[in-house]
Amino acid sequence: MRDFEEFAAANRVAGIAFGLPEEEPDEPRDRARYDEEAELGYWKTFVALLDGEIVASAHSTYVDGAVTLNGGAVLPDARGRGAYRALVAARWDDAVERGTPALVTQAGRMSAPILERLGFREVARIKILVDRFAS
Fold it and tell me: pLDDT grade, residue 1 (50/70/90)?
């Protein structure tokens, strides 16, 4: 990700790809998140382009001994064209450049088959509990 505009576009793409309700742009909130990402360096946003347009986004989170790949999202019309794999490759290359010995991700039904074809393997299962009564 090169600048704030790309960061904001990446977040819009993720919202659409994950089927989140559209919300009004909130530049101060988004700018604060962008500045925090740049300042702290704990995570980084990546984008994939098709025909010059951002069609996918993903994040890496940097922890001791590993890079966590999270938030991979591709616009519905762009799926099946290599954007997700390109984001995995970019984050993989970034991890290698940082000297990080391991990549970790939590994969859902759409990304798990792609990640397995790329060489990831399951090492644990996570059970997610949701409190349906919480407000």
Answer: low
Find the mean pLDDT for residues 90-115. 89
- Cβ neighbours around 15 below 10 Å, total: 15
Q: Is residue 57 part of a domain?
A: yes
How many other CB atoms sit within 10 Å of the CB of residue 62? 17
Q: What is the CATH number of the domain that holds 9?
A: 3.40.630.30
Residue 30: CB atoms within 10 A of its CB come to: 15
Question: Residue 90 and residue 40: Cα distance in Å, rounded?
Answer: 20
Other CB atoms closer than 10 Å to residue 50's CB: what's the count? 16
